[in-house]
Amino acid sequence: MTGALTLGPIGNIFYFVDQFDEAVEWYTTRLGREPVVRGGALVAFDIDGVRLTIHKSDEFNSPGPTGVSAYWTVSDVDAIVADWTAHGAVAHRGPKTVFTGERLCQLLDPFGNLFAIREAPRSAGVESGASS
């Protein structure tokens, strides 16, 4: 890639939790709103146009300060993954398309930092499914 990378606004922030059901209930009450997406290992809340996703912890991400992933919106996840991995980054989680239609990838930069990117769904209205 040449030139400046175009990053859109942060579109989705993931919190990874061990006590999934309890966390969903807690955030539902604290935020005063119901999740807009439910499926598999995650639920997502819409907070004024930004998603807050509560995801069950797993082998890739654990709870706590290291269990937060803010996803930058980009136009082409796969092109960025190809460029960044060619220059020392490692695909940590993904790239993959999740049931919401978003294309996601968490990359580890050569210095061990997590950089997460998302591509908006290509077709509107994809909001149900069973896994993430």
UniProtKB/TrEMBL annotation:
<protein>
    <submittedName>
        <fullName>Putative enzyme related to lactoylglutathione lyase</fullName>
    </submittedName>
</protein>
<feature type="domain" description="VOC">
    <location>
        <begin position="9"/>
        <end position="120"/>
    </location>
</feature>
<dbReference type="Pfam" id="PF00903">
    <property type="entry name" value="Glyoxalase"/>
</dbReference>
<dbReference type="GO" id="GO:0016829">
    <property type="term" value="F:lyase activity"/>
</dbReference>
<dbReference type="InterPro" id="IPR004360">
    <property type="entry name" value="Glyas_Fos-R_dOase_dom"/>
</dbReference>
<keyword id="KW-0456">Lyase</keyword>
<dbReference type="InterPro" id="IPR029068">
    <property type="entry name" value="Glyas_Bleomycin-R_OHBP_Dase"/>
</dbReference>
<dbReference type="InterPro" id="IPR037523">
    <property type="entry name" value="VOC_core"/>
</dbReference>
